[in-house]
Amino acid sequence: MNGETTIADAPLALDLRDRAAVARALTLVERGGEAAQSLLAQLRATGRAIRVGITGAPGAGKSTLAMQLVRALRPSGTVAVIAVDPSSPFSGGAMLGDRVRMNDVAADAGVFIRSMAARGALGGLSAAVADGADVLETAGYDYVLIETVGVGQSELDIAGIADTTLVVVTPESGDEVQTAKAGLLEVADVFVLNKDDRPDGNALWNALRRMVDARSRTARGAWTPPIVRTVAHDGRGIEQLVEQIGRHREHLLQDGQLTARRRTRNRARLLALTTAHLVRRLQSAEYAELIEGALGAVDAGDSTLHEAAGSLARSLTADAPEVAAPQTATATGA
Predict the structure, then answer these.
(1) For the chain, which residues make up each domain, given as ranges?
(2) Are 123 and 154 contacting, i.e. CB atoms less than 8 angstroms apart?
(3) How far is CA 326 from the centre of its chain?
């Protein structure tokens, strides 16, 4: 990029070879505001990148697993990683910064690693994570790995961002798996039994196998999540894991399932983004007096909160211009 053009003015020039420009774009997305909106409005994600989510409880070895996946995937393409970290209570930024343990792969020009803050979002994931994945895909990375913070509902939320979701469990998490099995089965495309060299690995494998078998009997023809046994710290099982990621990708490509999954993802993001726009408008100065008036009517007993909310909602859209439907619609894959 030349010195006369900002990242927000020309986002389509994003290129993975310009790591500084990619980093600036991600920083802009994390900060939010009008500049971020300008950038994001111009992004055209190609849908070519393979997005892999890595989720599981803290201590399951997700970061080590991500590092090993980067090494294994790198010969077949460029790889970017978004590592979602707990938010700093002071700055709102990622507390861990770029993961120190990934430094040995981060030096590769074809690898980009970025920590992003959860920012207290429901489920441990913020909207900036999905937007950041769009930035990395637009920049041309072949693989985008998203490692969750591993708290709250993040195990479920990651499925709304990734094409393939890896649910990482360890022998110590047997009881956890039993209590959360409904949610895990809903989002897991591949189970990763990590730290398989520890005791009780076989017991957990058998528990997972029973869960998966029960699901397959009620969902004939659907994808059956494989269980890959790994020991991430020494790379054991990583080759098999990459193979299963590839198998799932081929499964999704059959009969347009990948397109359908991305359409569902885009629908959820569209509704969330639209809601965020409406909330920002409602919180603006122009609505302050209207809100105070509505509250006054509620206090006086002339209105109820539900009536006031309906009135405010109608006022938000009363002066909105009619939007013509496009003649053709294509999914961006973002």
Answers:
(1) 43-255, 262-318
(2) yes
(3) 28
* Predicted pLDDT of residue 268: 86
Q: By the 8 A CB rule, do 143 and 282 touch?
A: no
Q: Which residue positions in the chain have pLDDT lower than 50?
A: 1-12, 87-99, 120-124, 321-334
Torsion angle of C-alpha atoms 209, 211, 216, 217, degrees rounded to 10? 110
pLDDT for the residue 30: 87
pLDDT confidence of residue 325: 43
pLDDT on residue 334: 37
Residue 272 DSSP code: H
Q: If one looks up domain 43-255 in CATH, what number appears?
A: 3.40.50.300
pLDDT for residue 10: 44
**Cα distance between residue 259 and residue 270, in whole Å:** 16
CA pair distance 20, 156, nearest whole angstrom: 32
Cα dihedral across residues 85, 235, 172, 217: positive or negative: positive
What angle, rounded to 10 degrees, do the helices at 238-253 and 257-282 form?
90
SS3 call for 192: strand
